[in-house]
Amino acid sequence: MPIMALADSQGILHWIEQSAPAVFFRQSIWLYPAVEIVHIIGFAILVGSAVLFDLRLLGMARKLPVTESIAHLIFWARISFLAVLPSGFILFMVEASSMAINPAFRLKLILIVLAGLNAAVFHRFTLKSIEEWNIDKMPPVSARIAGVISILLWFSVIACGRLIAYV
């Protein structure tokens, strides 16, 4: 990264960190921990929903239609995302300069993007054949691979989230 671009990004990060909302959250004894709790609970619901669906893709609970699983679990994943996104931004905002250079944080963001791409590929291609394996059949190899990749990515996201404080 050119020195000028790095200086510009550091200026923006410093500005974010010193903004009134960031200072407010950073100085609050109870609000910052509350935001962390919301973020963790949101992630638990998001990853829990994803893993439950992934287990269905791996062939568990075959009597439960995949289409119903998607309908139910995607609702909870979307709701939890509404908690995770703003709480994550607040957590970033409070320590923007150090978070931006933290390898665990950067890896966490990359893994989240990869998890999203994995889900997009699954929905775009594999899900087209859903009627063939919706109930009582083992999902196709492509669905099982997507499920394994998803579980590995989301567990890695959680690990990176914990590592942020230690790296």
Can you tell me about this structure?
- α3 runs antiparallel to α4 (66-94) and α6 packs antiparallel against α8.
- The radius of gyration is 19 Å and the shape is elongated.
- The mean pLDDT is 94.
- It has helices spanning 3-17, 20-27, 31-57, 66-94, 96-101, 103-124, 130-133, 141-163.
- The protein has one domain (3-163).
- The protein is mostly helical and 167 residues long.
- It has eight helices and no strands.
- The two termini are 22 Å apart.
- The longest helix has 29 residues, at 66-94.
In short:
With 167 residues, the chain is mainly alpha-helical. The protein contains 8 helices and no strands. Helix content is 80%, strand content 0%.
Number of helices: 8
| SS-based class | mainly alpha
Average pLDDT taken over every residue: 94
Shape: elongated
Give the C-alpha Rg.
Answer: 19 Å
Low-pLDDT sequence parts: none
Distance N to C terminus: 22 Å
| H-E string | HHHHHHHH
Total strand segments: 0
Number of domains: 1
Portion of residues within helices = over 70%
Major sheet size, sense and barrel closure: none
Strand composition percent? under 5%
